[in-house]
Amino acid sequence: MNATAEKNIPKEFELRRQEFLNYLSVERGLAQNTLLAYGRDLERYLVFLASAKIYDFAKIQRKHILEYLALERKRGLDAPSLARRLVSVKVLHRFLLRERVIKEDVTSVLESPKLWKKLPHFLTRAEMELVFKSISGTKPPALRDRALLELLYAAGMRVSELVTLRGEDLHLEEGFIKCRGKGNKERIVPIGRKAAEACRVYLKAARSGQKEAAGHAFAGRKGRGLTRQFVWKMLRKYVKLAGLKKTVTPHTFRHSFATHLLEGGADLRIVQELLGHADISTTQIYTHVSRDRLKGVHAQFHPRG
User: Fold this and answer.
1) Helix, strand, or coil here: 21?
2) 144, 189, 192, 229: which has the highest count of C-beta atoms within 10 A?
3) Is there a catalytic annotation at residue 182?
4) Number of domains in the chain
């Protein structure tokens, strides 16, 4: 939190904010990035309350929250950002009610705006092959890059899961890896033979030519673990070499993973499990890709198809 905001937040409010963030971390096990987002959102909310001369949570009314959201919208926030702000406020008030700091949750009747879900950007199978063909060379860096991208696509991993993979998480002979996702939740994800072989080739070369990466499965030049920024930059290089004009990020590989599985006839629940989604509604965004397959099934089995 910046120094200016800290001065504008009453001590009681800041104390409750820290208690709330500790609760999310310890009892709910939320990821660090999620905690930071909640912290920033609530910082703005508490600064607003202080500017409105409200220094007691029990004095907050629905109109105050609506005024706060209107002010944030005036600042130029779009609907998804406003929805996140409201969610942060609602979760804080539920926590305060649970802790008996307030007797009534004034946010209980406030609904988050319904948002249009953006269709995920993904690469076609042919485009994916072009990216892999653009990786050449037999030195450890090139072998590492191939293994990284093969894993991204084979397991549908988040980039944060990829860079935190440890050697003990790779079970290449058995054909699976262990991922630690949001909230430090662990899941088992199978990988194909190409990804497993790419990892084996890299690890064999790395052992003979690179320093150990303190337990990390993949290492940089000086034996340190990789960063998300490194993976982004590395991927952009190969997308450019492949001649693709699309904007491609590590998450594009995750979207492509889910899209291609559903195109091939995979069950939505299985894809949900592989992606590590807590709610299937998050996975359902990928069902746009199955339209052609549904048309084919209809044409094949409907009496007037």
Assistant:
1) helix
2) 144
3) yes
4) 2
pLDDT tens digits, 248-300: 999 999 999 998 888 888 888 888 888 888 777 777 777 665 555 556 656 66
Strands (E) in the chain, as ranges, are 170-171, 176-180, 186-190
Domain boundary among 53, 83, 98: 98
Q: Are 234 and 223 in contact (CB under 8 A)?
A: no
Q: Determine which one of 182, 187, 200, 228 is catalytic.
A: 182
Q: Is 171 a catalytic residue?
A: no
Which of 243-278 are b and which e, b meaning 16 or more Cβ less than 10 Å from the residue's Cβ?
A: ebeeebebbbbbbbbbbbbbbeeeebeebbebbbbe
Asked if residue 253 and residue 181 are part of one domain, the reply reads yes
Cβ(64)–Cβ(87) below 8 Å: no
| Residue 158 bears catalytic tag | yes
Domain-terminating residue out of 98, 115, 142: 98
Residue 46 CA to residue 24 CA, distance in Å, equals 18
Same domain, 154 and 73: no
Write down the pLDDT at residue 5.
47
Q: Is 277 a catalytic residue?
A: yes
Domain range for 177: 125-297
